[in-house]
Design a protein that fits this description.
mainly alpha, 87% helix
Length: 233
């Protein structure tokens, strides 16, 4: 009888321990799911929001430098160039402000400053001779811009790792789309020499893809700023 009672008491004790373990699980769960990020949330929320508005300014300024607007109202072209250069430089300054959270932002900022400097060099280009001399500068500017986009996108990927992994992956995938559309434009341009129609279609499709990437960048910047702004601190 004593052994039977001991067995019953052991079973009850075991059940009690199991129940207590089950009761402790929900209490410990929030501590496991809520992870304090390793970046400065308030700093990123503030300045990435500024980047969002600067990208919009740059895109509006690019409309002023389009061929149709330039032919209709020439002064707008110069105004658009000046606004674009100023916005590019400010963009680099903002990236330096958040470089403490990811060194990739610092590299992106350097690319912004180089691109702004080259854009200033290209302002006086007016006739065919000067344009031919400016081709190397244009090529270097394109390469620098690509590097700048890469470092910025990867910077956003890094700082979002502990905040929003889905959005972090979207930034990484956006870089691949950006690179893909650029390579398609180059390929289509070369192909146009051999097969003009097919080459033109490739360039057209890649141009549309580039526009989509630019729109997505604006959307992702907004979502990134919002993710940091609404993250519990």
């Amino acid at each position: 009888m004593e052994e039977f009672q001991k067995d019953q008491m052991g079973e009850q004790t075991g059940k009690t321990e199991e129940n207590s373990g089950e009761m402790e699980f929900p209490i410990d769960q929030p501590e496991q799911t809520v992870k304090k990020p390793s970046v400065n949330i308030s700093l990123l929320a503030k300045w990435i929001n500024v980047l969002f508005w600067l990208v919009i300014v740059v895109n509006i300024a690019s409309l002023f430098t389009s061929e149709n607007v330039t032919n209709a109202v020439p002064p707008l072209a110069l105004a658009g160039q000046i606004i674009s250069i100023a916005a590019e430089a400010i963009y680099g300054i903002i990236l330096l402000k958040i470089a403490s959270e990811s060194l990739r932002y610092r590299n992106a900022a350097i690319c912004c400053f180089i691109s702004a400097a080259f854009s200033i060099i290209l302002i006086p280009v007016t006739d065919g001779t000067e344009f031919l001399l400016a081709i190397p500068v244009v090529i270097v500017t394109i390469v620098v811009d690509m590097l700048g986009e890469y470092y910025e996108f990867m910077g956003h990927t890094d700082v979002l790792c502990d905040v929003d992994t889905v959005l972090s992956d979207k930034w990484f995938n956006l870089w691949k789309w950006y690179l893909g559309t650029f390579l398609c434009i180059i390929s289509g341009t070369v192909l146009a020499v051999i097969l003009p129609l097919i080459g033109l279609l490739v360039v057209l499709a890649a141009t549309v893809g580039t526009l989509v990437v630019n729109v997505l960048k604006i959307v992702y910047l907004y979502k990134t700023a919002k993710a940091f702004r609404t993250f519990p601190q």
